[in-house]
Amino acid sequence: MKKEEQIRMLLHPEDYTDEQLDQMLDETNVPVPDANKQWEKFRSEKREVKSEKREVKRERPMLLKIAAMFIGVLMLSGIAYAAIHIVSRSVEGDLQTPTQEAQITNSPQQTTDEQPTDSTVMKPVVFEDAELGTILSEVATFYQYEVVYKSEASKHIRLYFTWDKKATIDDIIDTFNKFERIHITRDNKKLIVE
Prior knowledge:
By secondary structure, this protein is of the alpha+beta class. 58% of the residues lie in helices and 13% in strands. The strands form two sheets. Strands 2-5-4 form a three-stranded mixed β-sheet, with helices on one face. Strands 1-3 form a two-stranded antiparallel ribbon. Strand 4 and strand 5 (190-193) form a beta hairpin.
């Protein structure tokens, strides 16, 4: 029987009689492997793999030690490099600080609506559930203004407010006036809260 016909018989056995299927099975010779021989072959391959692993394990610790030493040297050199730069920058900063302070103390006090753009002074201030009186007292002090309240109740209005110190006093007044219960006007160096 040809292989093509055997494949057809396997795919569509309903098209063939039982005798034809039996005949096909009789003609097909499938060698049955000897279990003992296969088991011995497997064991011998397993022994070879184990011996190879032992050789690799002997080599691995030495490689790991070398890699660990190399990484340790790199880390120590990186730490030493960083320490040198930190110390050198702090020494440079100590040398420059007195001249900066002298320039600040010798400069006249500013009377304009703008303030210096020093990075420590210009960080935003966040007020969380703070009274308007507290917020405006800090803002007025920063811009050198006086706060006048026409109503005592307006001092106690509580707000969540982020104050950007880079903004002008007019920008801040506009921001406060966007709240429903607050109306602020500016007259010379006074902030009038209605």
